[in-house]
């Protein structure tokens, strides 16, 4: 079972202190010290170079590994006392207070966050007063995240009403959560009891969620390698050909594909695979005059009908204004 997001954050904060005190530490020794696999440690190390006191390159953690030892090249640079500007302190205080209200947050974590917030308020001075007049209300994804995180921590099953854009319908299902991760959006990987298979759920598509008393018992699965992105088509998936003009060349950058052939007008003929070809109808509508689905024929016809229906609905609305 993968660690939940809060556990991973806590571990990575401890990892920074550990590595600072042990330059050139061996990967095997560090993984053993934190009770994780070497692959999990390498995954953490891939994230740490994106952390620091700002987004400027010199303020980020310069940490790398050759697979055997871990080197932190700028510990002294990022260890200088952090001085927050008024707007930074305000944003941090507002965010901290908002996170402390999340349902499902473990009480020990909530108390630790509140203690840290109190220290920050004392250091922020006038900025703390300004932040007290601001508040944040989380949208549904925040509550869903908290419930999923709690379910992973307590190893409990979840009930979902989930929107599937490929079928344009809501389904109800019970799932055993495995892990949370972010690739552009935030996702939950889980064992779905409806399909009896591993499935990935985007949190902002969860219409309703309930934490069940039944224990979660997903089968032992090897975690997917997400280094190549969330969507990793199989050779067995149906093939789709999309032809785009110059204004649609971005499709080749955002969609994994088998080939992208240049067209005389500066466009591309893109061949890709997907387990749900119908989901590409939305892509065709988004492209408009910049592209079309060339094959399979039934999908191309379906996309044309969807475009015609959308245009007819628009014309109908315009005539009533």
3D structure, described in words:
The chain is of the alpha+beta class and 321 residues long. It contains eleven helices and twelve strands. It has helices spanning 5-21, 27-34, 38-47, 75-78, 86-100, 107-124, 126-131, 140-154, 251-254, 281-287, 297-319; strands at 25-26, 63-65, 69-72, 156-164, 169-183, 185-192, 197-202, 206-215, 239-244, 259-262, 268-273, 291-295. Strands 7-6-5-4-8 form a five-stranded antiparallel sheet, with helices on one face. A four-stranded antiparallel sheet has the order 10-11-9-12. A three-stranded antiparallel sheet has the order 1-3-2. α2 (27-34) packs across α3 (38-47), α5 (86-100) packs antiparallel against α6 (107-124) and α10 packs across α11. The radius of gyration is 24 Å and the shape is globular. The model has no long low-confidence stretch (mean pLDDT 78).
Topology:
Blueprint: H1 5-21, E1 25-26, H2 27-34, H3 38-47, E2 63-65, E3 69-72, H4 75-78, H5 86-100, H6 107-124, H7 126-131, H8 140-154, E4 156-164, E5 169-183, E6 185-192, E7 197-202, E8 206-215, E9 239-244, H9 251-254, E10 259-262, E11 268-273, H10 281-287, E12 291-295, H11 297-319
Antiparallel strand pairs: 1-3, 2-3, 4-5, 4-8, 5-6, 6-7, 9-11, 9-12, 10-11
Helix pairs in contact: 2-3, 5-6, 10-11
Descriptors for this entry?
321 residues, alpha+beta, 4-stranded antiparallel sheet, single chain, 5-stranded antiparallel sheet
Give me the secondary-structure category: alpha+beta
Radius of gyration: 24 Å
User: What is the end-to-end distance?
Assistant: 56 Å
The count of strands amounts to 12
Shape assignment: globular
Largest beta sheet: strand ordering: 7-6-5-4-8
């Amino acid at each position: 079972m993968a660690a939940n997001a809060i556990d991973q954050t806590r571990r990575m904060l401890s990892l920074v202190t550990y590595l600072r005190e042990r330059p050139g530490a061996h990967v095997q020794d560090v993984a053993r010290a934190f009770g994780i696999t070497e692959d999990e440690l390498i995954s953490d190390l891939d994230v740490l170079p994106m952390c620091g006191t700002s987004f400027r390159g010199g303020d980020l953690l310069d940490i790398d590994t050759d697979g055997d030892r871990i080197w932190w090249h700028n510990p002294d640079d990022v260890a200088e006392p952090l001085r927050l500007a008024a707007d930074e302190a305000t944003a941090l205080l507002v965010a901290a207070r908002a996170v402390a209200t999340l349902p499902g947050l473990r009480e020990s974590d909530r108390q630790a966050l509140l203690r840290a917030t109190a220290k920050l308020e004392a250091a922020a001075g006038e900025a703390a007063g300004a932040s007290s007049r601001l508040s944040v209300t989380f949208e549904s994804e925040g509550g869903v995240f908290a419930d999923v995180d709690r379910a992973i921590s307590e190893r409990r099953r979840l009930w979902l009403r989930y929107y599937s854009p490929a079928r344009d319908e809501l389904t109800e299902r019970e799932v055993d959560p495995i892990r949370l991760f972010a690739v552009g959006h935030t996702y939950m990987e889980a064992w779905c009891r409806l399909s009896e298979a591993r499935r990935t759920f985007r949190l902002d598509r969860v219409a309703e969620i309930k934490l069940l008393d039944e224990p979660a018992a997903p089968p032992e699965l090897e975690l997917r390698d997400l280094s190549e992105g969330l969507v990793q088509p199989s050779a067995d998936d149906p093939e789709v050909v999309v032809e785009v003009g110059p204004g649609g060349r971005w499709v080749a950058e955002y969609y994994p594909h088998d080939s992208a052939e240049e067209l005389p007008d500066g466009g591309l003929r893109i061949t890709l695979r997907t387990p749900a070809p119908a989901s590409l109808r939305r892509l065709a509508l988004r492209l408009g005059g910049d592209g079309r689905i060339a094959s399979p024929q039934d999908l191309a016809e379906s996309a044309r009908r969807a475009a015609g229906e959308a245009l007819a609905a628009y014309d109908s609305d315009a005539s009533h204004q």
